[in-house]
Q: What sequence folds into this?
């Protein structure tokens, strides 16, 4: 993921930190340093040092929260790709469970972990004198109780929103449940933003991210559900033309004119070495197209897909990497290509075909 780097691996799960995290820790350190108990350390010396430690610990507790989701998901056989810590919290890249009951449990466990830690630290924090260890315990209790309580709100795509979506999905089609949960989440986000105008600009920032994340989640869920069970070989263009890296841009333009394709895999001695598109060609000045070769301007380090890969995964790769197409390779040879148009056309056709889907009781109902 862009601007993220791995710091550890837990039970095979890559733990990533996004650089935006380092923008918020100083702010948390400042807030804790100037605040009194149970939030901060204003009543003791070295408050900024302790505030910085507490600011870092926020994301340790966020990581434990996300591990709660991920480890339970793995127990149910659900794929967990990574955990990433961001400016506003953590995100576990977990495959959407097909059973609403499993999503209900995996979504709920995160807040329960946080609330459980909060209760534990709160029980340990009672002391007759406000020592530094005691202040840390109070701070840790406060962090976890806020983290658990905030995430349990039914503002999709936060944990409470996912619990709400899972509850709805046990009673109605999954896409309809997602749409309803997203709309509720957006209402919460707008309300939070309005409250933030009077209380704190941080709430406005969080509300903005919740609103955007809810929209992205709905779009991703629609893609995943619509393309469920569809493989790359079902939608790819098998009759694909390839070009060598030694071809000039002028020659490539002639090929494009004749074959009417906008993107071509670049193959050298039978091996895929890159991808060239009309966008790359357009960047070459007309007076240099006789001298510049395809190999000089092609997209390198292309990660191809196989015919048996999931079509929904290819859609995500195209979007994330801003590619127009991805080559399909089998046995070391290029056997096809998948374009954005291929995927979107498949989604349109499948969306029409799947207007009627099976409901929780096994009957056909409208999506």
A:
């Amino acid at each position: 993921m862009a601007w993220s780097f791995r710091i550890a691996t837990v039970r095979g799960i890559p733990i990533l930190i996004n650089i935006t995290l380092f923008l918020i820790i100083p702010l948390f350190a400042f807030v804790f340093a100037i605040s009194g108990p149970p939030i901060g350390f204003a009543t003791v010396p070295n408050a900024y040092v302790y505030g910085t430690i507490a600011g870092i610990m926020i994301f340790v507790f966020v990581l434990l929260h996300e591990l709660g989701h991920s480890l339970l998901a793995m127990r149910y056989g659900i794929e967990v790709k990574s955990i990433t810590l961001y400016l506003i919290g953590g995100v576990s890249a977990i495959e959407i469970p097909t059973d609403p009951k499993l999503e209900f449990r995996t979504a709920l466990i995160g807040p329960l972990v946080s609330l459980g830690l909060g209760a534990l630290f709160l029980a340990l924090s009672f002391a007759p004198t406000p020592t530094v260890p005691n202040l840390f315990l109070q701070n840790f209790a406060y962090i976890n109780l806020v983290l658990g309580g905030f995430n349990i709100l039914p503002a999709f795509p936060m944990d409470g929103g996912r619990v709400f979506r899972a509850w709805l999905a046990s009673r109605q089609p999954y896409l309809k449940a997602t749409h309803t949960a997203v709309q509720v989440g957006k209402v919460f986000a707008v309300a939070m933003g309005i409250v933030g105008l009077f209380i704190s600009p941080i709430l406005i920032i969080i509300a903005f991210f919740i609103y955007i994340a809810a929209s992205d989640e709905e779009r991703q869920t629609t893609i995943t559900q619509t393309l469920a069970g569809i493989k790359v070989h079902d939608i790819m263009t098998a009759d694909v033309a390839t070009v060598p890296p030694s071809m000039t841009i002028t020659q490539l333009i002639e090929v494009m004119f004749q074959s009417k394709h906008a993107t071509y895999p670049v193959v050298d001695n039978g091996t895929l070495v890159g991808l060239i598109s009309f966008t790359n060609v357009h960047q070459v000045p007309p007076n240099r197209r006789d001298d510049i070769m395809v190999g000089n301007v092609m997209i390198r380090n292309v990660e191809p897909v196989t015919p048996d890969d999931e079509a929904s995964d290819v859609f995500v790769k195209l979007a994330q990497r801003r590619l127009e197409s991805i080559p399909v390779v089998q046995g070391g040879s290029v056997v096809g290509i998948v374009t954005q148009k291929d995927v979107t056309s498949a989604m349109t056709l499948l969306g029409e075909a799947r207007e009627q889907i099976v409901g929780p009781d096994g009957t056909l109902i409208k999506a």
Notes: Residues 355-367 have pLDDT under 50 and may be disordered. The chain has three domains: 4-152, 166-226, 233-351. Residues 88 and 209 are 8 Å apart (CA to CA). Residues 47-75 form the longest helix (29 residues).
